[in-house]
């Protein structure tokens, strides 16, 4: 009896433990918002970095602050692509901050109050050094800065608190990077090798054997061969996420009458300025270039090549102080004033008036966009997009988008649809209506594949192409070898003529130069610097061709010129190596970290909760 009771009690305890674990996990999922049945809470983690959580609320607050800063600075609203870029950069920065803090703790790196005082007194941060009130004749004035630090104003305005917060983050970072980058030394031999790589030159004659890939042979490659090649070259097939979208566009069409009206307005503004109105005031009121418009149209000083051709031609034809007639570019009509000229350098102001549809035309476009949105926006049935396009007489565009890259079609940017596709949308779903200065856009997600570690099924066609090219090069190898053998005795030109092949001649090139007909940074370029002059090479294989080449001329780097600049080269190389070591360290820290990124899970959960 007692044994039966003990057994029953044991079963009950086990069930309590199981139920407790289930309920705890269920409650966590519920309160975290990851099941999509409740909103995300303040304690929801957007990521775990080596077990340390980054709160979703902190992530949202941080990227929203950056979005606000960029909107205010740029004077424009941001697209979904812009927002996604900011979110990714914010996430990466927050992850790295956690990883760096973990490194500080592991290495025992701390910052003392005395260190903060020393840095604050004698090494002010860049945002302090650029403050206008701390300048004297255009240069940062250390005495003004130190007087400010000792004043009550510095404490009252929060400057001292901001400096302390800055240095508590910056000083440990500097200590860590100093540890990582210490002990680097550059030998004279390495500096001379770098100089030679940049200044040795060669000239070559060559015959190129380029493969013709046979479609029938390509199709006959077995899956086993493709799989074997993929397993051996997997790193070559890493791709970003890929989405195929159908997009309906309603362009903002500008008529000749619209353009004429904007030109007439630009002429009227010019007359106002010539009549006595201040250019800067008109620019602040009228210019569509929000960046320069806020500064009264000031474009600063610069040399030729800064601007598009029509603008630059008009600007260089003006006298100092003269106001141009309206100048048409792809951005609209400009009024230009030259403030100063020194040689090819100009200081300029301008006013930009964009050419936009008239109110009546704009109303028609908006009405069509509203109709499109009512029929197909945010639809679960993808066919609604086709129905809307047909009913409204709109063209559909097929677009392939890559993750974290804005979509484009025929060289034109298509805003926001890529960020939407990779933000948790599912196949067959249509987006909300997006718009920018060029028009309105509605997208349907037709297919999507994840990026990162490649799957054989997703890259099979690309593997097939590479295997087919490699086999085509194999078939050319005997012909290339035959030419090389004949050229060794009769010369390259005679051997090529015998086989009815063309000999091409390169210009002088360095190891880093792009060589017409040969390419850049490949085996053929390297051969040109290792082969004796007038010698003919064996067949040299690159990724897309076979070459038989002869070095006609080689010019050695000037050692006297190298010695003259060696100190500057050594300093630059040291800085480069230090930066490389730091970057490699940070990459290794990131790659070796255990990072649980929950952004897509949270986004999908929120989308389900909203549907």
Quick rundown:
This protein is an alpha+beta fold. The protein folds into 6 domains: 1-32; 33-106 and 595-610, no CATH class; 109-181, no CATH class; 201-234 and 456-555, Chitinase A, domain 3, CATH 3.10.50; 242-253 and 359-449, Chitinase A, domain 3 (Roll), CATH 3.10.50; 257-353, Chitinase A, domain 3, CATH 3.10.50.40. Helices cover 53% and strands 17% of the residues.
Number of domains: 6
**Portion in beta strands:** 15-25%
Return the CATH class of the largest domain: Alpha Beta
Ends distance? 57 Å
Q: Specify the overall morphology.
A: globular
Strand order of the largest sheet: 16-5-18-17
| SSE-based structural type | alpha+beta
Largest sheet: 4 strands, antiparallel
Query: What is the CA-atom radius of gyration, in angstroms?
Result: 33 Å
Low-confidence regions: 1-38
- Arithmetic mean of pLDDT: 87
Number of helices: 23
Q: Can you count the beta strands?
A: 19
Name of the CATH architecture of the largest domain: Roll
- CATH topology-level fold name of the largest domain: Chitinase A, domain 3
> Into which percent range does the helicity of residues fall?
40-55%
Question: For this entry, what is the oligomeric state of its chains?
Answer: single chain
